[in-house]
Amino acid sequence: MSRAKEIAKKNALRIKRKKRVRGSISGTATVPRVTITKSNKYVSAQAIDDVAGNTLAAANSKTLGLSVTKESASKTAAIIAEGLKAKNIDTVVFDRNGYLYHGVVAAFADALRENGIKL
């Protein structure tokens, strides 16, 4: 199997997991959905109110001048937590966006918990 086909299959499986998870979770104004997106260079996250279709808080490691590491995921989570606390939100629903829960994704979730946000 060529490298391009392997990558396409890997992405297709991630999209399949993403759709399966998104069918069961949704965010509201009081309990938003926090979703993480990662690439080979950056980590970004958003807190989303799915009912109104609004983004309540957002952070990106690119604007912070960071790369995709566990430390940068923790700093990005701290920015999200700060934005949520400013809006008096302390509970969220975590959407890992089809990624496996380890490494950067797990570090992001742990940093949210450390900053006082309940998942």
UniProtKB/TrEMBL annotation:
Keyword RNA-binding, does the record have it? Answer: yes
Its Gene Ontology molecular function terms?
5S rRNA binding; structural constituent of ribosome
Q: Name one GO cellular component term.
A: cytosolic large ribosomal subunit
Gene3D superfamilies the record matches: 3.30.420.100
Q: Which SUPFAM superfamilies does the annotation name?
A: Translational machinery components
Q: Which UniProt keywords apply?
A: Ribonucleoprotein, Ribosomal protein, RNA-binding, rRNA-binding
Classification via Pfam families: Ribosomal_L18p
Any GO BP annotation: translation
Q: What does this protein do?
A: This is one of the proteins that bind and probably mediate the attachment of the 5S RNA into the large ribosomal subunit, where it forms part of the central protuberance.
Protein family per UniProt: Belongs to the universal ribosomal protein uL18 family.
Indicate what this protein is called per its UniProt record.
Large ribosomal subunit protein uL18
